[in-house]
Each structure stands twice: as C-alpha cells, then as structure tokens.
Amino acid sequence: MFTRLFIALFTLVVSQHALASDDPTPYLGYSEVNELIDSMVKEHGFDQAELKQLFGAAKRKQSILDAIARPAEKTKEWWEYRNIFIKDKRIAQGKAFLKKYHVILSEAEQKFGVPKEIIVAILGVETRYGQYTGGYRVIDALTTLSFDYPRRQTFFRKQLVEFLLLAREENQNPEDLMGSYAGAMGYGQFMPSSYRAYAIDFDGDNKRDIWTNPADAIGSIANYLSRHGWKAGEPIIVRANVKGNDFESIANKSLKPAHSVAKLSKLGVVAQGQYPNDALASLVKLKNKQRVEYWIGFKNFYVISRYNHSRLYSMAVFQLAQLVNE
Known about the structure:
Elements: H1 2-19, H2 31-44, H3 48-56, H4 62-68, H5 72-75, H6 78-85, H7 88-100, H8 102-112, H9 116-127, E1 136-137, H10 138-147, H11 153-169, E2 178-179, H12 192-198, H13 214-227, E3 237-242, E4 259-260, H14 261-266, E5 269-271, E6 280-287, E7 292-297, H15 299-305, H16 311-324
Antiparallel strand pairs: 1-2, 3-5, 3-7, 4-6, 6-7
Helix pairs in contact: 2-3, 6-16, 7-9, 8-13, 9-16, 10-11, 11-12, 15-16
C-alpha cells in the first residue's frame, strides 16, 4: 500500500510540474481535445490524423496563463496605461506610418468613413505599426486557453475552431502562424473569428493578408470599425467639466452610450463644446497621478472599444490618433 501511495504521489508531483512548465503537454490525452477533433472531422471535413498530429505537438504555455491573468487594461490606472502607448517614439513612428501609407489610408477613410489617424493609432497600440505582432504560436496559445483556462474556455474553444477554419481557407500551415498570448494575429491583432468576418483584400491581389500586408490591415481595421457602427464626421470623445457629485453613480458604469447630453448636464456634467441635447454618451472617469479627468464618450468612442473592451484602450487610441495627426 505504501508503495502504491508513493507512486501515486510521485506521479501527481511530476504531472503538476509538467503543467507548470512550457514543456509539450499530452493534449491528446484530454478527452475534450479528442471531442473537438471528432467534431472538426464530422462537421468540417478535417483529416483526423492531421489534427491529431497538430494537437499532439501543441504546447501548454504557463506564460500565456500568467499574462491573461493580469491584462494591463484591468490592472493599471489611466496614467500608467497611457505611459505605455503615448510616447515620443511611438508618436514619431505613427507620423511616419501615416506619411508612408497616406494614399491607402485616405482610400480607406473615403470608403469606410474612419479617420486615417484612428486606423494608424490602432496599429500603433496593437503592434507598434506591425513591428511586433506576437511571439507565440497561435495553436499553442488557443489550445492552452481552450483547455487549461476554464474561466473563458468557451470563448477560446470557439476561437480555436475559427483558427483551424481560417488556416485552411487561407492555405496556411496552422503550426507556423504566430500571434499574441491570446491568439490575436497580424498587424491589427485580429482574433480568428474577426479575421474571418472582417478581414478584407484591400489592395486587389486576391488575398486578404493582415499577417504581412499593411494595405490589407488598414482596410480590414477600417472595415471592422465601420461594421461596428462608426459614424463618419461624428465626435468621438470630449472633455467635460463637472460640478457636484450626482454624476458619480454613472461614471464608468458602461462603455455603451446610455445617457443623453441633456441628462448629463442635469447631473452636473457639461461637455466642452456644443453637442445635441439628445446625443447619447457615456461618462468616462480617468485617474491621473494628481487628479481625476472626466470625459463624455459618444458612439464612435464605443465603437473603438469593440476592438478591445476597455475605456483605457479606447482613450489611448484616441489620444495617440490626435498626436500622430498633428
């Protein structure tokens, strides 16, 4: 009995050590993985042997699990988050990118109504204008999060399916594709479902390639924002003056515009500028080192947040856009 107990404890320790490392994980030993393989074969016509080989070589990455547990959008105050992206070098690189791709950016703005500086700013925040598109194999990232991150396994399993379909559609080897720790890819860091739904061929070469083609990335970001409701010529976000404290109950409660400008005014929030009383907006509260800022965010600010569900992210994009366009 003692021998059996020792073996059991030893096995447990070894298995826990393996799960804590970045060594290859026997994902084919997971019943859920084999169920996914079977469904991909039955529903989408994949080759079972190829999928078994793919998942047999997939690696569990502890660094991915560590990173997703502490995203900057949820762990930092505005002034800390801003300092990551609003830097002289990134602004200068943004100006250079805008100048280099001015023609294609103008075409995207004309077709989709999205300002060229907003497109550039998203590229700047996401990948430093395509300079860093991620250091993880997408198959490792999505497999790790699909089967070893229970909190959001439903979302990531959907993305894993979308990734396999995408790789087949675009004639790409899924083992070769690289991305972020969350499985986002290319210049604009599209998740697989977004790639399939919103990526476009914007330079007419009959390929939609946002992995390496900046023209397609520009057009795809503009298409994404347009499809999510961007309104050309309408405001994004403006500073607000506040008085009293009645407004505090709605500050940062929702990214979605839910309060009219007139209602905000009654609560003591007045926009710096003239805007229709019936325009819907949200109240954004941002903490700096020494003070608090209040902003009124309109529909277009909300649309930016559809790219990354964070008011900090949306504000970083907005402010970087202003600076690269000066």
